[in-house]
Amino acid sequence: MQWVNRILLAALLAFAVAYLPQHIYSSGGGEDLGRVEREHLALKASNDRLGGEIEALRAEIAALKRDPAEVARIAREDLNLIRPGEVVFEVQRPAPAKAP
Questions:
Q1: CB 81 within 8 A of CB 75
Q2: Most CB atoms closer than 10 Å: which of 18, 62, 75, 93?
Q3: What is the pLDDT of residues 17-36, one digit of tens each?
């Protein structure tokens, strides 16, 4: 009689292992899995893009550390700084005439 109980228990366990994952997946777990996979792909693409930006910034930092002319260029163009003794001329262009 003990072997019958063992066979029934093994059959029940095999049924649970075969049926329950499919039942859980079909009852809404699949939708969650799809959503999570889409989020994962979006985050991976964002991570790759940010990695590229980080590499560009590291290259800019390296250029600033080794080239004083690059620092001067950024100071002049981005920060509008001048050296002592320099004279700044501001040129204003006339607005283009409108055609009749």
A1: yes
A2: 75
A3: 887 777 666 666 567 778 88
